[in-house]
Design goal:
Elements: E1 2-12, E2 16-28, E3 32-44, E4 47-54, E5 62-72, E6 75-80, E7 83-87, E8 90-94, E9 98-102, E10 106-116, E11 119-128, E12 135-143, H1 144-151, E13 160-168
Antiparallel strand pairs: 1-2, 2-3, 3-4, 4-5, 5-6, 6-9, 7-8, 8-10, 9-10, 10-11, 11-12, 12-13
Length: 172
């Protein structure tokens, strides 16, 4: 893992927080090479507004925006705003505003949709040890050639994946 041109600036007071971090170049193994990575977060009390960008004004431009709300010391709530990221010149859209809550022994996901052309992945529901909780997910027209290049796999995968599962119980 390699970081070049790291600049960190932050300010913390009794009622607010500002973080502004940038990395001119980030390299991880042979598969991830990002330029002009920028993370900024501003918050007051338990509420943070954050944005992460990389490779601006290129075919791999990415911009992910979210809010974080700290409910208590065991529970975080994230609101993922419509955003996008690109890897290997393939742009994936985070279509809807979606919510993710991470609690002590459960994860709630609401209205998450990741889409590229007609390919998409959706998640909605809850993962926990409670039998009454279910996670609904759907994978539509996911091209394995795209996924293979996305994860930097040495094995070339081919084919289209379609899966739709509703009310999937989590086995503990």
């Amino acid at each position: 893992m390699q970081f070049n041109g790291v600049h960190l600036q932050q300010e913390l007071t009794s009622n607010s927080m500002i973080a502004d971090y940038s990395v001119e170049k980030f390299i991880y193994s042979d598969s991830i090479n990002l330029d002009q990575v920028h993370f900024v977060s501003n918050g007051k009390q338990n509420d943070l507004k954050s944005e992460l960008t990389w490779n601006p004004k290129t075919a791999n431009e990415s911009d992910i925006i979210w809010d974080t709300y700290i409910i208590d010391n065991k529970t975080l709530s994230f609101t993922l705003k419509p955003s996008y990221f690109s890897i290997n010149e393939q742009r994936w859209e985070i279509e809807n505003q979606s919510d993710l809550t991470v609690a002590y022994e459960e994860i709630h996901v609401s209205k998450f949709k990741l889409e590229r052309n007609k390919q998409y992945i959706t998640l909605d529901g809850c993962l926990s040890r409670n039998d009454a909780d279910k996670l609904n997910f759907q994978i539509n027209d996911l091209n394995l050639v795209d996924i293979s290049s996305f994860i930097g796999s040495e094995v070339q995968m081919e084919g289209i994946v379609m899966v739709g599962l509703r009310e999937v119980p989590v086995v503990s």
